[in-house]
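S., here's the first fold you wanted:
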Amino acid sequence: MPNKPFNPLADIASILGSIAQRLPDLPKLPELPTSAERPSPPQTYHASEPNPVGPRVDVLDPLMIEQMETEQKRQAKQGLVPFIYE
């Protein structure tokens, strides 16, 4: 019987394969919700209104547009590439 060439990667792969075959099967994943059961997307609020949900705002709000333009001008003054909020 001829000697097999030394191949440590194949030896490691065969050891890991035999270990994996002895492991129990993974549990079945839970069913994903249907579109009727999914929650509705969060609402957006104007920046001038108090937001009970979090930091989501309407970027078409005039106050937000003004803040974005101010920030772009500040970035351009510093020599940075202005971030486009679109």
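And the second, which I think is the more interesting of the pair:
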Amino acid sequence: IKLIKQISDHLSVSYFRYKFGIYHGNPLTDHIKQEYDSIFKLTNIACDLIRNELELPVHEGEVALITLHFSSYLERKIFDDTIVVLDIVCPSGISTSNMLYTELINLHSFIKVNKVMGIEQYHNEGSSSEYIVSTIPLEQEVKHIVVNPILTNADKKNILNTLNLQVDTPNNVAVDDLMLLINPYIKPGMKEYTKKTLLNYFSRDETYKSKRLGMLDILYNENIIVSDEKVSWKDAVNIGSSPLINNKSIEPSYIEAMINNTIKFGPYMVLENGYVLMHANYVDGVNNLAISFTKFNHSIKIKNKQFNKLIILAPIDEKKHIDIMKDLMLLFTDEDIHHKLDEADSSEAIKEVLKELSNDKES
């Protein structure tokens, strides 16, 4: 109703401007056409009704302004009172949280993440959100859901059940609502085309408009190690971190922070297929965004868990490594790549296997 009133008010003013031959132009027309291409085209079709019935020209600049009303409505649509607001808590607060953040916002359109926090920040600031998703248990009185760093199917079902959400197709929700609104203005035979165009518009991935660094962009050959040593997990962390120490990407304090986190919170980042992702907070001694990959020919234990593929990630801030985390999520869940990495016997062979992962992502 609010949208209808906004467009009605806008058209009322426009009607009198056109009647008296007043047209100021719209310097943003080209920008709006480019930014909201699909919505602009649909709005232009709808404006044919005004052109035909009222015998008014309705210039492209006017169509662009009406387009803004529709696009604003579509973007607000997901932020209604059905949204469930979550906070994310994990021991280090950055990399694991961002990995969970990506998975949670893709899990359901009604999930909104308010804040990502390390455990210290959580204890200091608390949480005002309805629920917390955490990789470690919190106080019993706090409504929280304990999950794995990489969400399993059981984790996803548990989250949806706890939040009383059903698996949805959010694009269809908004499109169906909008189709009801614009249906009177759609020409005969254009309904299916119009709906398809809207669905394509909603499906656009505009989250990353500029290229960000992926895993292979910073995983240099000298940062890949194959080790035949039988060592403790602490020594393994030092071996895996050595390339990043040598190129000054991290300080020794960062290694200490990773080891202390593991001692304090347990082997929560030992994943399936022998992977372990070690990281700490960027304030613990990170100079440059960096990553290393170490394959051990002998399994290494942390308490009751084993690994043979160690990844050290050094984030420089809270955002620049998000695409790297997306690559790692693909890596951790690709069975074929896992087996090929176990067979690889050199840093060059490992790099070639990881390139296959990049090719799969692009295809």
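Why I say that: The chain is about 50% helix and 15% strand. The longest strand covers residues 290-302.

Talk tomorrow,
H.
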